[in-house]
Design goal:
The complex is a heterodimer of chains A (about 110) and B (about 110).
Chain A lengths: L2 E3 L4 E5 L4 E3 L2 E3 L4 E8 L6 E6 L5 E3 L5 E5 L4 E6 L8 E9 L5 E4 L3 E6 L1
Parallel strand pairs in A: 2-12
Antiparallel strand pairs in A: 1-4, 3-9, 5-6, 5-10, 7-8, 8-9, 10-11, 10-12
Chain B lengths: L4 E3 L2 E4 L5 E6 L6 E8 L3 E9 L2 E5 L6 E5 L5 E5 L8 E8 L8 E2 L3 E5 L1
The chains are: A mainly beta (about 110), B mainly beta (about 110).
Chain lengths: ~110, ~110
């Protein structure tokens, strides 16, 4: 069955540290890829997305993600995190040609120490 | 504010009961999605409607059903509730299909006692 795996459930970093959150999916077809973020007390919102073209995608607040098709991965990165990046991060995959289905990962809780 | 509204914000009910959750999409959005978020299962896609028609189905139980009305608002009906149905239920909307950016509502927190 198709699935999305986020390897890190909880991540704790200090401010200015570099961040990489892993996301892998299992589906051999064409996909659209997303990272959503949920700040404390707020609704989920889009961080960035990949549809086609340049596999390195830049999003809001200095985040970027790289689609590596051969590894079925879409890892999220930020070179220097801030306390305000404390949130839960969700990777999502839209399975094109599969009834327009979308699958979310279980999320990664990121806690940034001031 | 995403422009997606959900009511009620909180709901407390007993096992065996039935509840209805309501979602109003952003103006102009034709698709509505329902998700269930729990601590152990994460964010689970339940079902998607596009312009009144069911478009995609996820891990939705048979006890749950949804519909999208001509004015594009949607309702999620949960029946024969069990303790394990306690969760946060999110609605999201997008202009077209699931390949587009989804805008999430604030959620309805359901507690089944």
């Amino acid at each position: 069955a198709q699935s999305v795996s986020q390897h890190n459930h909880h991540v704790i970093l200090s401010e200015a540290a570099s961040l990489e959150l892993g996301c892998n999916y299992s589906y051999g077809g064409t996909v659209n890829l997303f990272w959503y973020v949920q700040y404390p007390g707020q609704h989920l919102q889009l961080l960035l997305k990949y549809f086609s073209g340049d596999p390195l995608v830049k999003g809001i607040k200095g985040f970027e993600a790289e689609f590596i098709k051969s590894k079925f991965s879409f890892n999220l990165r930020k070179p220097s995190v801030q306390w305000s990046d404390t949130a839960e991060y969700f990777c999502a995959v839209n399975l094109m040609n599969r009834d327009d289905k979308i699958i979310f990962g279980k999320g990664t809780r990121l806690h940034i120490l001031p | 504010d995403s422009g997606v509204t959900q009511t009620p914000k909180h709901l407390i009910t007993a096992t065996g009961q039935r509840v209805t959750l309501r979602c109003s999409p952003r103006s102009g959005d034709l698709s509505v999605y329902w998700y269930q978020q729990s601590l152990d299962q994460g964010l689970q896609f339940l079902i998607q409607y596009y312009n009144g028609e069911e478009r995609a189905k996820g891990n939705i139980l048979e006890r749950f059903s949804a519909q999208q009305f001509p004015d594009l608002h949607s309702e999620l009906n949960l029946s024969s509730l069990e303790l394990g149905d306690s969760a946060l239920y999110f609605c999201a909307s997008s202009v077209g299909g699931a390949g587009e950016t989804q805008y999430f509502g604030p959620g309805t927190r359901l507690l089944v006692l």
